[in-house]
Design a protein that fits this description.
Layout (H helix, E strand, L loop, with lengths): L7 E6 L5 H13 L3 E6 L9 H8 L17 H8 L2 E7 L1 H9 L5 H8 L7 E5 L3 H5 L1 H12 L2 E3 L3 E4 L5 E5 L3 H12 L8 E6 L4 E2 L5 E2 L6 H12 L3 E6 L11 E4 L3 H11 L5 E4 L6 E3 L20 E3 L3 H6 L2 H4 L4 E8 L3 H12 L3 E6 H4 L4 E7 L4 E8 H21 L1
Parallel strand pairs: 1-2, 1-3, 3-4, 4-5, 8-11, 8-13, 11-12, 13-16, 16-17
Antiparallel strand pairs: 6-7, 9-10, 14-15, 17-18, 18-19
Bound molecules: cytidine-5'-monophosphate.
């Protein structure tokens, strides 16, 4: 299921302090099921040893086009023909300039030029000082390399090895893996604008207290990541959760159910798919105290009264765009028992074509889950798997349903 499983990646290292991160990247690629052939420039060998990279990938590192071990003496041809992708991480300013110029005077740039462009993608993870990154020559060379078929994965922003702060850091290995997984995922949701709610809501009682629940947001975040990997433009409306934003996903943080409704209402004007995974609080305190509610010494707890929150999913599902088929709505149901029965009823009550049921106590905060897909035809179970895998399965399912809806 992992798009990197079984892929053969040529991992090229050019010179830069970020070479130390390439060791972790190689490890993560191997862990994802890829075979990794490392190729290093002479400059890269000043920053990390070939022995480290060999030990992590279980393959001798290639460093020279004059390597006598290649029986045909054509390392550049052999290496580039085997690859499913060539990833340069770190990609130095100098290496970008070499690519832009089509230089072939050392093995790594030589094999990039020798690769069959239509079949072997070239992905670049640049890494350099912020001034070097901002230099017009670097940007010009990068634009040229991109125009010649390279995919630029972007850079991070922050503290640099030189002590300066700004753009130009290499992406973290986990971010590069995220980008590579997205790159290799079929674009089943290309052209779709997917809006997702995730996590709990927080309903304030006073300035320091409130009511929330134990939803971690993991399922919604996993769906957001999978939808982006599948080529959708994704907006994630998140309640208070401690999760990193999936790369390439626009995230809007909200607190209460009312905040969530306002944000979703706005975003739903242009979305084509709405997936409500958030565990929205059913009720909120009728009044939010201006000041912290104090104990008054009487031993009496304060009397709180509640009002019902708006049902975000039902509101969106009843909107004109949803009714006219321009916005496909998916709901979730976290139940403790009689899952199918509750999920069926909830689907009808919310007015959505697809409702995904799960057992609440078995999913909140967990990394894996089982799902039950309920529609007008019946139900279909997705067996226990990680939320990441279930997110991908759900996206594939969604793509099938959107295609079927388009064809009818
Ligand atoms: O009614 P219940 O909370 O079980 O419904 C669950 C589904 O409805 C989920 O998809 C949830 O995100 C959505 N929901 C909502 N707004 C609410 C309550 C639930 O969008 N106020």
């Amino acid at each position: 299921m992992n798009p990197l499983a079984g892929k053969h990646i040529v991992l090229g290292l050019s010179g830069g302090i970020a070479c130390y991160k390439a060791a972790e990247l190689a490890r993560l690629l191997v862990k994802a099921g890829s075979s990794v052939q490392v190729v290093m420039t002479e400059a890269a060998e000043h920053f990390i040893t070939a022995a480290t990279m060999q030990a992590l990938t279980n393959r001798p590192v290639a460093t020279s086009q004059w390597d006598a071990r290649e029986s045909n003496a054509m390392a550049h041809i052999n290496l580039s023909r085997e690859a499913d992708a060539i990833v340069i991480a770190p990609c130095s300013a100098d290496f970008i300039a070499r690519l832009a110029a089509g230089r072939c005077d050392e093995l790594l740039s030589l094999l990039c030029v020798a690769r069959p462009i239509a079949r072997v993608p070239l992905l670049l993870a640049p890494a350099m000082n912020r001034e070097m990154w901002a230099h017009p020559a670097t940007q010009r060379n990068l634009a040229q390399a991109a125009q010649d078929g390279a995919t630029v994965l972007g850079v991070g922003c922050g503290e640099q090895a030189c002590g300066e702060t700004g753009d130009g850091r290499m992406l973290e290995p986990s971010e590069i893996i995220e980008e590579l997984e997205a790159f290799f995922t079929p674009k089943l949701l290309a052209g779709q604008k997917v809006l997702i709610t995730a996590g709990p809501t927080f309903e304030a009682i006073d300035p320091v207290r409130g009511i929330t629940n134990r939803s971690s947001g993991k399922m919604g975040f996993a769906i957001a990541r999978a939808a982006r990997e599948a080529g959708a433009e994704v907006t994630l409306v998140a309640g208070p959760v401690h999760l990193p934003t999936p790369r390439g996903v626009a995230r809007i943080d909200v607190q209460s159910a009312q905040n969530m409704l306002e944000t979703v209402d706005r975003q739903a004007q242009t979305a084509t798919v709405f997936i409500a995974t958030a565990a929205v609080a059913d009720w909120r305190p009728a009044v939010v105290a201006m000041h912290k509610i104090k104990k008054d010494g009487s031993g009496q707890a304060p009397a709180l009264s509640f009002v019902e929150n708006p049902d975000i999913l039902a509101t969106v599902a009843a909107s004109r765009r949803a009714r006219e088929g321009d916005l496909y709505c998916v709901g979730f149901a976290a139940e403790s028992d009689h899952l199918l029965e509750h999920a069926r009823l909830k689907r009808e009550r919310k007015g959505v074509p697809l409702l995904v049921g799960n057992i609440g106590p078995a999913t909140f905060g967990q990394d894996d889950n089982t799902l039950l897909l309920v529609d007008s035809q019946g139900s279909h179970a997705l067996p226990r798997a990680s939320k990441r895998v279930l997110g991908r399965q759900l996206v594939a399912e969604l793509a099938r349903r959107l295609a079927a809806a388009r064809d009818t």
